Amino acid sequence: MARPNPITMQKYLSGVHYPCSRDELVEHARDQGADGDVLEHLRSLPDRTYDGPNAVSAEYSRT
Predict the structure, then answer these.
(1) Which of 4, 9, 13, 57 has a 20 to 30 A CA-CA distance from 51?
(2) To the nearest 10°, the Cα dihedral for 30, 31, 34, 36?
(3) The pTM is what?
């Protein structure tokens, strides 16, 4: 799986309502037209509640 650019990933998460789960992040990104690489990378994040974009970015940088 290619690692999507973090800016691209955050573009697809624009407007998501936090706090939210990993599955909600994936669903929102899919609804915004995210490509397969972005969706797969989001699915690989830990299954937990994220309280904001900084929390998502922090996990993103670890995977």
Answers:
(1) 4
(2) 30
(3) 0.90
* Tokens at 49, concatenated: 């509640």
Among the listed residues 17, 7, 13, 8, the one whose alpha carbon sits nearest the alpha carbon of residue 31:
13
Q: In the structure encoding, which two tokens stand for residue 16, read together?
A: 């998501």
Q: Under a CB-based contact definition with an 8 Å cutoff, are residues 25 and 55 in contact?
A: no
Token pair listed for 39: 């969706």
Structure tokens at 23: 């599955």
pLDDT, one tens digit per residue, over 35-53 is: 999 999 999 999 999 999 9
Whether 41 and 63 have beta carbons less than 8 Å apart is answered as yes
Q: State both tokens at 57.
A: 């970015």
Alpha-carbon separation of residue 34 from 1, 11, 14, 27 (angstroms): 14, 9, 11, 10
